[in-house]
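User: Hello! I'm new to structural biology and keep hearing that structure can be predicted from sequence alone. Could you demonstrate with Phthalate transporter-like protein? Please show me the input and the output so I can see what each looks like.

Assistant: Of course. The first part below is the input, the amino acid sequence of Phthalate transporter-like protein. The second part is the output, the predicted structure written as tokens.
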Amino acid sequence: MATEKDTTITTQRGDTENTPPPSYEPEYECEFTPAEQRKIIHRVDRRLVITLGVLYCISLIDRGNLSTANIAGMSVELELGVLEGNVSRYSIVSLLFFITYILFQIPSTPLARKVGPRIYCAVIVISWGAVMVGMGFVQDWKTLAALRVILGVFEAGFFPACVYLLSTWYTRYDVGKRYSVFYMVGSFVSGCAGIMAFGLMQMKGLGNLSGWRWIFIIEGLLTIVLGVGGYLFLVDFPDKAHKSWNFLNEREGKFIMDRVDRDRGDAKPEPFAIGKFLRAGLDFKVWGYAMILFNSTTLTYSLAFFLPIILVQSLRFSIGAAQCLVAPAYAFAAIVMYVTGWISDKYRTRGPIIIFNMVLCLIGLPIMGFASSPAVRYFGVFLVTAGANSNVPAAMTYQANNIRGQWKRAFCSVTLVGFGGIGGIAGSLVFREQDSPGYRNGLYACITCCLLNIVIVIALSITFWFQNKKADRGEVELEYTDEDSQPGFRYTL
């Protein structure tokens, strides 16, 4: 495996050339020149990362537009502020989505591998778009809750399939930037969804429908259109890339598989076996990665569901201003997300990036919750939004770098995203109606999640450091399986 010291590459033409950064050209026999290799990688970036990012943005918009519709009149019309026990109907509607979202993730990755990501992702995107349109015509909160349950069924398979698909195309030190761009496109555009929702609200009265109903209807139709586009442009796994329309040929696909194989030795698909799939659950590190994403998504979903409400009730902004003021915070988050992803790949470090993001949140949460000036508290929103959202691709990269094997990777995608969904349930309950307008208990819960993430990363980093030292001394073989081994694998701290 290449190191930072590699400076030349030998091609079949016999030439010796200076190489670009080592993430592209390790030292090996290759029929493509370094420039040709970069072009192939960039072609994959444009076709895969951007397409998935666009589809993910509509996914985030569709699961998060509940908050914008809520302050646009849905809460009054469907009586969502009424308490059922100690929980508001709005919180019930929010969290029911995540029950099916979590349960149906279990078969998602094997299904994506079996059916192929193009067909699989297109079908579920179009299906949840149809559900979104239906939400624009509900007449009571129970029907809305039922449709949210169905929405969870269809959305369940999308994110783990994306995480798994991206991990099969890139080497360990290429994937950080790609995860960041994928999530950055989604989170930034979804952050601008409040502005779009404000515009759609102005359709109030058209067709005798309320403005909040048009938010669901128009965004649902847009989802269906993008689902069809996803089928046309999304690509399959690397071993079948040459079958995708107007994409790589067999030689180029083999180049992608060879570079991934040299990096971690698991590019070739293995036959599915339930034992191999479930055996990954015996590794405690898998659950550490999942807990990092759980704590991170508790923050991101609490912001997605309640930030517009907090801006109105706590910071005293108008409804229109609250919907529009969400966007700048997500734009700032996109910048932080890409910069930290770039640094993470360049310096081959993962854990410190997660800790940095959590420190941003730990600075921003007290400012957002306790400062006296609304303008200063709004500045705190920027820090929290940036740190929480940047941590999602950082957690995905941390996990992807430190596992090997096709089916362990598939199992980890399911557990990672599943715990992310559980974080969505927690995020739905963090800011309770009875705690308004200060929402102090929700702030304390978010601070606890940040601190717990820092503890987990430190514990895993210490474990990785000791295990790498043992491997350097030849005492252990890291991430070894009976079917697959790769001498030289080391954990990324």
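User: So the tokens describe the shape?

Assistant: Right, they're a compact way of writing down the 3D structure. Reading them back into a model, for example: Strands lie at 8-10, 16-18, 83-84, 87-88.
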